[in-house]
C-alpha cells in the first residue's frame, strides 16, 4: 500500500557502500513510501534534483566512509536555494572519520541544517518511524 | 577500444603512459629509471614480494592492518605505531575515497580542511597529491614493506607514483576494483586500465625488481559465494600474469564457516597454480590473503574481538600467507591507531598459538573443495567460451551477461540477479543463481542445502534469509535465524 509520501535516498560523495542503500530502499518501499534512490557515489545535486523533480517530502543521506562531513557542507543552503525549504533532511551512517563524541557530531550536523542525525548502526525502521512523525502521518 | 588478453608492447605502454602522467602535476615527478635504481637499493626486508614468499616457504601467516590518514606526518606516525606497538608484519597505506575516483582537487580541499581542523577529514592517505617525494618520506620513515590498499577503478597514476617511491605491493584489479567500487565505469575501461598497472609491474619485474600484486578478494564483503570470488581472483591472476606479473597474492574474505573458509583458500591456491601452469606462466610466486570478516560488525568491542580472533584462527588453519586485520571500531568506521594496534596484537597472538597447525583433512572438507571446484569450472569455462578463448574479452562479456555476478555491487554493469544465503551450517550458498551457468546438479545441491535451513527454521527459502544474514554477525550470530516469538 502506498502511503503518499516521497523520500529521496542515496549515498553521498565518493562513497560506494551499496548494501545498506539497497536495504533502505527495500524496507521503505515495503512500508509504502515512494522511494527515489539516487544510488551510491551521488553528488549533492543528484539528491536535490531528484527531490525537486518528484516533489519529495524528505531526503535521507547515507554516508559510510567518513567523508560525510566534507560531502554535506552547504547541502541545506543548496536545498533552500532550490525551493526545498520544507523538505525534511536526515543523515546517518558512519558520518565522520573515527570514533568521536556522538553529541558533538550530532550538533555539528544539526548546525549544518539536518533535522535528524543518526548514529552508526541505526536500523532504518527507526528512521522510518521518525519520518512518519515528522510528516504528521502518526502522532509525534 | 582494442582489448585482448595479450601482453602490451613497450610502444603501446609508453604511449598511454604519457597521458597517465599528465593526470595530476605530481605525475611529472615519476622517473622509471630512478624508480628501478631506488627499488634495487631497498633492503630485502622492505620488499613486499620477498617477505611474502619467504613467509610462504616457512609456512607462516603474516598480519597486516589497514590504515591511512590525510596528513603526511600523522600518516607516518600512524604506520610507525602499528609497526612498533601493534607488531604488524606488513604495512599498508589505505588511500582516501576522493583519490579512488581521481578527484585530486577534492583531496587538496580535504588536506587543507584536515590541517585546519587538526584531525583527518579524509578516510585515507591521498598518495597522488603527496607525489613521489611524499610517498618516499613515508617509506623511509618505516622499517617494513608498504602496500597500496584502495578501491580505484583507474589506478594508473597512483601506481606509477607509489611504485617509483619504493612501495612494493599494489592491491586491486579490473573486476575487483570496478564492480564493488564504481557506479558507471565500463568493464572495458577497467580491464584496460588494470592491464596498464599489471604491465607496469611486469616492466619492473623485467628490470629485476619484484613488486607484488594483490587482486581484491572480498568484493562487496557481503555474502559473496566462494566460487564467485575465487573465479574473479583466478581471472585477475591470469590477466596479471599475461602482463608479466610474477608475485601475486590472491584474496578471500572470510565467510564464517570454518570448513568453507579453509576449502576456499586451498582451492584458490591450487587452481591458480594449475591454471598458470597450464597456460605456461612460469616462475610464478602465488600466495594467498585471508580477510577477516568484511561484513557488519558488533558495536560491542569485546564481541568485535571475538570476530577478529575467529578470523585470525580461520586464516591460520587455512594456511593463508597473510591475514588482513579488522578492528573493534569497525561498527562505527575508521579506527583510532590504538584500536588498530590492539587488533593486530590479538590477531598475532592467535596466529602464534596456531603456528604450524592446519585444519586436518576430512570428508566434509573434501566435499566442500570438490563442490567449489565444480562451480568455478562452470564459470571459467563459460568465460573462455564467451571470449572465444580470450580471457579479457570473455570477462567483459561474462559480467554483462551475469556469468560473473557480484551480490550487492553498486556498478550498473553488474547484473545483480544472483542472490546468496547461508545454509544451516552457515556456509554461503546460491539462493538464486541468476545467469551463472551452473549444471542442474550444482543448482540442486545449493537448493537442497538451503532447504535444510528452511526446514530447521520453519520458513520458506526466501530473500528474507539473505537480509537476516547480512545483519546477523552485527547482532551476534553467524546465521540470521528468525527471532523466536
Automatic annotation (TrEMBL), chain A:
Cofactor: adenosylcob(III)alamin
Pathway(s) annotated for this protein in UniProt: Amino-acid degradation; L-glutamate degradation via mesaconate pathway; acetate and pyruvate from L-glutamate: step 1/4
Keywords: Cobalamin, Cobalt, Isomerase, Metal-binding
B12-binding domain mapped to chain residues: 4-140
Entry EC no(s): 5.4.99.1
Positions annotated to bind adenosylcob(III)alamin: 14-18, 62-64, 94-98
Catalytic activity: (2S,3S)-3-methyl-L-aspartate = L-glutamate
Family statement drawn from the similarity comment of this UniProt entry: Belongs to the methylaspartate mutase GlmS subunit family.
Function: Catalyzes the carbon skeleton rearrangement of L-glutamate to L-threo-3-methylaspartate ((2S,3S)-3-methylaspartate).
Known partners and oligomeric status: Heterotetramer composed of 2 epsilon subunits (GlmE) and 2 sigma subunits (GlmS). GlmE exists as a homodimer and GlmS as a monomer.
The name this protein goes by in its record: Glutamate mutase sigma subunit
Gene: glmS
From TrEMBL, chain B:
Pathway annotation from the record: Amino-acid degradation; L-glutamate degradation via mesaconate pathway; acetate and pyruvate from L-glutamate: step 1/4
Keyword Nucleotide-binding: no
Xref: InterPro entries: Cbl-dep_enz_cat (IPR016176), Glu_mut_E (IPR006396), Glu_mut_E_C_dom_sf (IPR014714)
Entry annotated with the keyword rRNA processing: no
Identification of the protein by name: Glutamate mutase epsilon subunit
GO molecular function: methylaspartate mutase activity
UniProt-listed Enzyme Commission number(s): 5.4.99.1
Binding site for adenosylcob(III)alamin: 68, 123, 180, 297, 326, 330, 334
Species annotation: Psychrilyobacter piezotolerans
Family membership noted in the UniProt record: Belongs to the methylaspartate mutase GlmE subunit family.
TM region positions: none
Keyword field: Cobalamin, Cobalt, Isomerase
Enzyme class: isomerase
Binding site for L-glutamate: 66, 100, 149-150, 171, 177, 181
CC cofactor: adenosylcob(III)alamin
Catalytic activity: (2S,3S)-3-methyl-L-aspartate = L-glutamate
Quaternary data: Heterotetramer composed of 2 epsilon subunits (GlmE) and 2 sigma subunits (GlmS). GlmE exists as a homodimer and GlmS as a monomer.
Amino acid at each position: 500500500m502506498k502511503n503518499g509520501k516521497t523520500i529521496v535516498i542515496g549515498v553521498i560523495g565518493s562513497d560506494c557502500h551499496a548494501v545498506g542503500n539497497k536495504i533502505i530502499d527495500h524496507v521503505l518501499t515495503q512500508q509504502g513510501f515512494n522511494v527515489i534512490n539516487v544510488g551510491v557515489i551521488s553528488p549533492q545535486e543528484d539528491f536535490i534534483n531528484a527531490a525537486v523533480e518528484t516533489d519529495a517530502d524528505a531526503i535521507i543521506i547515507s554516508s559510510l566512509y567518513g567523508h560525510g562531513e566534507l560531502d554535506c557542507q552547504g547541502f541545506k543552503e543548496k536545498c533552500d536555494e532550490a525551493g526545498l525549504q520544507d523538505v525534511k533532511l536526515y543523515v546517518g551512517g558512519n558520518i565522520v572519520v573515527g570514533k568521536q563524541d556522538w553529541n558533538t557530531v550530532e550538533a555539528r550536523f544539526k548546525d549544518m541544517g539536518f533535522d535528524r542525525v543518526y548514529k552508526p548502526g541505526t536500523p532504518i525502521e527507526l528512521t522510518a518511524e521518525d519520518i512518519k512523525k515528522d510528516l504528521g502521518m502518526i502522532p509525534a | 577500444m582494442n582489448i585482448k588478453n595479450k601482453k602490451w608492447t613497450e610502444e603501446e605502454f609508453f604511449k598511454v603512459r604519457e597521458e597517465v602522467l599528465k593526470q595530476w602535476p605530481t605525475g611529472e615527478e615519476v622517473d622509471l629509471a630512478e624508480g628501478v635504481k631506488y627499488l634495487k637499493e631497498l633492503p630485502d626486508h622492505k620488499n613486499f614480494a620477498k617477505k611474502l614468499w619467504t613467509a610462504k616457504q616457512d609456512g607462516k601467516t603474516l598480519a597486516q592492518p589497514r590504515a591511512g590518514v590525510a596528513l603526511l606526518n600523522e600518516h607516518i606516525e600512524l604506520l610507525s605505531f602499528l609497526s612498533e606497538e601493534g607488531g604488524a608484519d606488513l604495512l599498508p597505506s589505505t588511500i582516501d575515497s576522493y583519490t579512488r575516483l581521481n578527484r585530486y582537487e577534492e583531496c587538496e580541499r580535504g588536506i587543507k580542511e584536515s590541517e585546519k581542523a587538526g584531525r583527518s577529514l579524509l578516510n585515507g592517505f591521498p598518495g597522488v597529491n603527496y607525489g613521489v617525494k611524499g610517498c618516499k618520506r613515508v617509506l623511509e620513515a618505516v622499517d617494513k614493506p608498504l602496500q597500496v590498499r584502495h578501491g580505484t577503478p583507474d589506478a594508473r597514476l597512483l601506481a606509477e607514483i607509489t611504485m617509483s617511491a619504493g612501495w612494493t605491493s599494489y592491491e586491486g584489479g579490473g573486476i575487483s576494483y570496478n564492480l564493488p567500487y564504481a557506479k558507471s565505469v565500463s568493464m572495458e575501461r577497467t580491464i584496460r586500465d588494470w592491464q596498464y598497472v599489471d604491465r607496469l609491474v611486469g616492466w619492473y619485474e623485467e628490470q629485476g625488481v619484484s613488486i607484488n600484486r594483490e587482486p581484491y578478494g572480498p568484493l562487496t564483503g557481503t555474502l559473496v559465494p566462494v566460487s564467485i570470488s575465487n573465479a574473479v581472483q583466478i581471472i585477475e591472476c591470469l590477466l596479471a600474469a599475461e602482463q608479466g606479473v610474477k608475485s601475486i597474492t590472491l584474496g578471500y574474505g572470510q565467510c564464517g564457516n570454518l570448513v568453507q573458509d579453509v576449502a576456499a583458500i586451498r582451492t584458490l591456491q591450487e587452481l591458480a597454480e594449475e591454471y598458470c601452469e597450464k597456460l605456461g606462466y612460469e616462475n610464478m610466486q602465488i600466495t594467498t590473503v585471508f580477510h577477516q570478516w568484511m561484513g557488519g560488525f558488533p558495536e560491542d568491542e569485546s564481541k568485535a574481538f571475538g570476530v577478529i580472533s575467529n578470523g585470525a584462527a580461520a586464516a591460520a588453519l587455512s594456511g593463508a600467507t597473510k591475514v588482513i586485520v579488522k578492528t573493534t571500531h569497525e561498527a562505527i568506521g575508521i579506527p583510532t591507531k590504538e584500536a588498530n594496534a590492539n587488533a593486530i596484537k590479538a590477531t598475532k597472538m592467535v596466529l602464534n598459538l596456531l603456528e604450524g597447525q592446519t585444519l586436518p583433512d576430512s570428508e566434509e572438507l573434501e566435499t566442500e573443495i570438490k563442490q567449489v571446484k565444480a562451480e568455478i569450472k562452470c564459470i571459467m569455462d563459460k568465460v573462455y567460451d564467451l571470449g572465444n578463448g580470450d580471457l579479457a574479452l570473455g570477462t567483459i562479456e561474462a559480467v554483462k551477461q551475469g556469468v560473473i555476478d557480484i551480490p550487492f555491487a553498486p556498478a550498473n554493469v553488474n547484473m545483480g540477479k544472483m542472490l546468496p544465503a547461508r545454509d544451516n551450517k552457515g556456509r554461503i550458498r546460491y539462493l538464486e543463481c541468476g545467469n551463472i551457468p551452473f549444471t542442474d546438479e550444482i543448482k540442486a545441491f545449493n537448493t537442497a542445502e538451503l532447504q535444510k535451513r528452511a526446514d530447521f527454521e520453519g520458513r520458506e527459502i526466501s530473500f528474507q534469509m539473505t537480509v537476516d544474514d547480512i545483519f546477523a554477525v552485527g547482532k551476534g550470530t553467524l546465521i540470521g535465524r528468525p527471532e523466536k516469538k
